[in-house]
Automatic annotation (TrEMBL):
Protein name in UniProt: Homoserine dehydrogenase
Family the UniProt entry places it in: Belongs to the homoserine dehydrogenase family.
Keyword Signal: no
Organism per entry: Nonomuraea rhodomycinica
The reaction(s) this protein catalyses: L-homoserine + NAD(+) = L-aspartate 4-semialdehyde + NADH + H(+); L-homoserine + NADP(+) = L-aspartate 4-semialdehyde + NADPH + H(+)
Any one GO biological process: methionine biosynthetic process
Length: 426
């Protein structure tokens, strides 16, 4: 089985290392040797983290993926182009493809799946979500006989590290981000992580597999963590909660649509996700027959991601050797993605209010007017420091948003200090 590798960066170099170190074991597991036949790179003379025979390196990626002797193409360059064109070219020539490209799969996975079907090749992408954690294959295969209700989890290690440090040390967002960058958990430009783009792409992939429907990154409601303050984290901690950036994919009660969202949320400290520390990932899958399943482990990094790539590579090679294919994209359900406004959730709201009689009554009246009931409320401070802290019962996000807008116009409310959704305790 001849393998072409696109990219020799953090992940690609680890893929090469594992292919070399485990060549005998991999050959035994596949039933034939896996031979690295070429590596496409941007610059030939660049110093690399792994030894690669110079004759294997090329800057002509298209020529490499369309070579007649290539059986499998592994893509770890990331981004939309030229990755999309190269993957489609390989699939059209009957190659099988293993990719870790979450952004491309979330934006235009349909094109890749259609090319795989037309070329009669496999498209595997376990490494695109949650690094080394076996997650996509259980959704794609192990739970194919079940009905998934919800997928809830932490799928971005950078943001989890930042929020964990804010919770455990009281650090500000800026300080925690700088520490994450120093340790290599965050990029110099952390936008994709801290603004939720990375998690949104992964949520789209998870939702598509879980609910047998096409979901793109554009369908995902997305909020990042840049507005979370040390005060928000401390307030959550005082109430027995921790703040996490969650990816939530859930089937509606009537089963006709799904909601897919990424946003910060408070979860009880007793919830298993609350104990996910530093840059680790964890995902809950709730299915009708299987019940609750939890997948936990390293969600990023060269070696963990390469482990997932190699797992797919072995599966794809076995299929080619046997003359078979793995499962195709399953979109038979064709469920629509309902807007965030229709999503039912709960909120924790902190209001800076005037310190005078009747404030609570007027605030409660406004909540009731928008069909949002209050579960708990407490008043803190006096004078200029007076604050109401409210946790609502479940209501549509549209109703909660309308309530917050009305509160800002209320003369007794000086400011809406914070609004945070609450998950995981229902």
């Amino acid at each position: 089985m001849k393998v072409a590798l696109l990219g020799c960066g953090v992940v690609g170099s680890q893929v090469i290392r594992l292919l070399h170190e485990q060549d005998g074991d991999l050959a035994a597991r596949v039933g034939a040797p896996l031979e690295l036949a070429g590596v496409a790179v941007r610059r030939l003379g660049r110093k690399r983290d792994v030894d690669v025979a110079p004759e294997l390196l090329t800057t002509d990626a298209e020529a490499l993926v369309t070579r007649d002797d290539i059986d499998i193409v592994v893509e770890v360059i990331g981004g939309i182009e030229p990755a999309r064109s190269l993957i489609v070219a390989a699939l059209n020539r009957g190659k099988s493809v293993v990719t870790a490209n979450k952004a491309l799969l979330a934006e235009d996975g349909a094109t890749l799946h259609e090319a795989a079907r037309a070329g009669n090749g496999d498209l595997y992408f376990e490494a695109s979500v949650a690094g080394a954690i076996p997650l996509l294959r259980p959704l794609r295969e192990s739970l194919a006989g079940d009905r998934v209700r919800r997928v809830l989890g932490i799928v971005n290690g950078t943001t989890n590290y930042i929020l964990d440090k804010m919770d455990s040390t009281g650090a500000s967002f800026t300080d925690a981000l700088e520490e994450a960058q120093t340790l290599g958990y965050a990029e110099a430009d952390p936008t994709a992580d801290v603004e939720g783009f990375d998690a949104a792409a992964k949520a789209a992939i998870l939702a598509g597999l879980a609910f047998h429907s096409r979901v793109t990154a554009a369908d995902v409601h997305r909020e990042g963590i840049t507005e979370i303050t040390a005060t928000d984290v401390a307030s959550a901690k005082a109430m027995g909660y921790v703040i996490k950036l969650l990816a939530i994919c859930a089937r509606s009660d009537d089963g006709r649509s799904v909601g897919v969202r990424v946003h910060p949320a408070m979860i009880p400290r007793t919830h298993p996700l609350a104990g996910v520390r530093e840059a680790y990932n964890a995902v809950f899958v709730e299915a009708e027959s299987a019940g609750q399943l939890m997948f936990y482990g390293k969600g990023a990094g060269g070696a963990p991601t390469a482990s997932a790539v190699l797992g797919d590579l072995v599966a794809v090679a076995r299929n080619r050797l046997a003359g078979t294919r793995g499962p195709e994209e399953s979109t038979y359900a064709s469920l629509s993605v309902h807007p965030m406004g229709d999503t039912v959730t709960r909120c924790h709201v902190a209001l800076d209010v005037a310190d005078k009689p009747g404030v609570l009554a007027r605030v409660a009246e406004l909540f009731a007017a928008h069909d949002v009931s209050i579960q708990t409320v407490r008043q803190e401070g006096h004078g200029d420091d007076a604050q109401l802290v409210i946790v609502t019962h479940r209501a549509t996000d549209a109703a909660l948003t309308a309530t917050m807008k009305a509160l800002r116009d209320l003369d007794i409310v000086r400011a809406v200090a914070s609004v945070m959704r609450v998950e995981g305790d229902d």
